[in-house]
Design brief:
191 residues; alpha+beta; two-stranded antiparallel ribbon; 5-stranded antiparallel sheet; 2 domains
Length: 191
């Protein structure tokens, strides 16, 4: 049985995985995640102009996207993503290098949470179509009501199946007594 800190969930393949708030378990799940799940962890926020045109806040990073570094020593640097290392959760950006002890320069690894996408690589047909489909859903204004709503009518009371009730029985539910026959003069109401 799951504790209060754990929630049982099922992924798209029907495999069970546990959602938890314990840091040690989150860390373990992050670094033992399969590559298809790591793809989702590589999301980065879009620039304001891209947000307006694509109606998304963030998109997974890919090789060929242009990004701007928003945190760290290299803040403000901009370039194309040359490669993505999903095993180590790092990406490499054109023009962002670090110097080795022997004096040679190598690409500097950057974590995807430290960058913002400024231009998307739309060479892939699948990516282009998925962005268009989602943008079309988001761009539609909510449907307005076709006509002014009419006031709801009170529900018509059902007539009893038998012709004329003789006396009203007290019921467990409290409801108004229904009178199906007209009162005659001098007759008293029971109830």
């Amino acid at each position: 049985m799951a504790s209060n800190r754990e929630r049982r969930k099922y992924n798209s393949l029907g495999e069970e995985h546990v959602k938890t708030i314990q840091p040690r378990k989150q860390h373990k799940m992050l670094f033992k995640a399969p590559l298809n799940m790591r793809y989702r962890h590589f999301s980065a926020p879009l620039s304001d102009s891209l947000k307006a045109s694509h109606h998304f806040d963030s998109v997974p990073l890919r090789k060929g996207d242009t990004v701007r570094i928003m945190r760290g020593d290299r803040k403000g640097a901009e370039g194309k993503v040359t490669s993505v290392d999903r095993r180590k959760y790092r990406l490499f950006i054109e023009g962002v290098t670090q110097e080795k002890v022997d004096g040679s320069n190598v690409p500097a690894p950057i974590h995807p949470s430290k960058v913002m996408i400024t231009n998307l690589n739309l060479d892939d047909k699948w990516r282009r179509e998925s962005l268009k489909a989602e943008a079309a859903k988001e761009a539609k204004p909510p449907e307005e009501k076709k006509k002014a709503t009419k006031p709801k009518r009170a529900r018509a009371k059902k007539k009893p199946a038998h012709a004329a009730p003789t006396t009203e029985r007290p019921s467990r539910r409290k409801r108004q007594p229904t009178t199906s026959t007209k009162k005659e003069k001098g007759e008293t109401e029971t109830g």
